[in-house]
Write a structure and sequence with these properties.
Layout (H helix, E strand, L loop, with lengths): L1 E4 L4 E4 H18 L4 H11 L3 H25 L5 H28 L2 H33 L12 H4 L5 E3 L4 E3 L2 H17 L4 H10 L5 H25 L6 H24 L2 H24 L12
Antiparallel strand pairs: 1-2, 3-4
Length: about 300
């Protein structure tokens, strides 16, 4: 089923794009991440220009996050105060990211920068996830439990001024910490089309020290509004959003989110994390190979 993408200016198999969206939805349902960190590179591998892939993935992640926010809200798993501070930071970050996106686009380096960012971030996050999962599996097999983590925020967070009480998260910290975190994820969302959940979730646990039962819901809440603002910014400035591509991805993500929720309830969380880490590392390796591998023919001419 060939479908023409007007902004990307090419024809694609619509079923393949729907399948990519399903992968995004499953990741959202299982891990509470937007999934754009895998959708964008997979679309690049398929031949879609990186700028269009990043912009369209951001709009699709918005739709994939809606159902997750409602589900988490019903069970009281969203810290709206903390999430709103991070949303404010995310909007600031989107403005900064838009300036960087346009600058790199004028310099002709935006595609290369997007690929390098993915290699660095996916490689580091995937490596940390794999190490933690393997350590947990070893502890389960040997019967020697891992030492429990102390849930406390990073010392740098403790030194920031103007402390607020975040009752749902059980924290008494400065709002500057989640604000800065939101700015960082906003920049990445604008440049890379990611929701930011694969960075937000570990950062909220190990840097802010948030309670684990509100981390996923608060992450999805921030992702929802930041990707929404990112979509509007791309539409107004870069004009790189392909609505046909985003719609096909959204169709797949709605189905994938339901499947992911069921899979998460039936599978071991440790195994799921290890599988996700392996996928992330494979994608990072493939993108690194694409940056350094010289094709046999640098230029090709295809018949119309």
């Amino acid at each position: 089923m060939d479908v023409y993408l007007p902004i990307a200016n090419l024809s694609v198999n619509g079923l393949v794009i729907v399948g990519l969206g399903m992968i995004t939805g499953m990741l959202s349902g299982i891990f509470g991440v937007g999934g754009g960190f895998l959708t964008t590179p997979l679309m690049i591998f398929y031949g879609i220009p990186p700028t269009v892939a990043a912009a369209s993935a951001a709009s699709q992640v918005t739709g994939a996050s809606v159902s997750g926010v409602f589900a988490q809200s019903r069970r009281g798993g969203v810290d709206y105060q903390m999430g709103s501070v991070m949303v404010a930071g995310g909007i600031i970050g989107i403005g900064i990211g838009a300036l960087l996106f346009n600058l790199l686009q004028r310099l002709g380096q935006i595609d290369t920068v997007i690929s390098i960012l993915y290699v660095v971030l996916l490689g580091s996050i995937g490596g940390l996830m794999a190490r933690e999962s393997i350590q947990t599996l070893r502890a389960e097999r040997t019967g020697i439990p891992m030492p429990p983590r102390k849930r406390r925020h990073h010392p740098m967070v403790a030194n920031l001024p103007m402390r607020w009480r975040f009752y749902r998260s059980g924290l008494y910290i400065s709002p500057l910490a989640p604000l800065i975190l939101g700015i960082f994820t906003g920049i990445l969302t604008m440049l890379m089309g990611i929701g930011g959940g694969f960075i937000l979730v570990p950062a909220m646990l190990y840097i802010l020290g948030m309670s684990a039962n509100v981390v996923v819901g608060t992450s999805l809440y921030q992702i929802l509004f930041v990707t929404m603002a990112t979509t509007m910014m791309h539409a107004l400035t870069t004009h790189a959003i392909d609505i046909v591509l985003a719609s096909l991805l959204l169709v797949g993500s709605v189905t994938g989110a339901q499947l992911g929720t069921q899979l998460a309830q039936r599978s071991s969380p440790v195994i799921l994390r290890l599988v996700l880490a392996a996928i992330v590392l494979l994608v990072a390796g493939r993108m690194a190979l694409g940056l350094g591998w010289r094709p046999d023919e640098i230029y090709t001419v295809a018949p119309l």
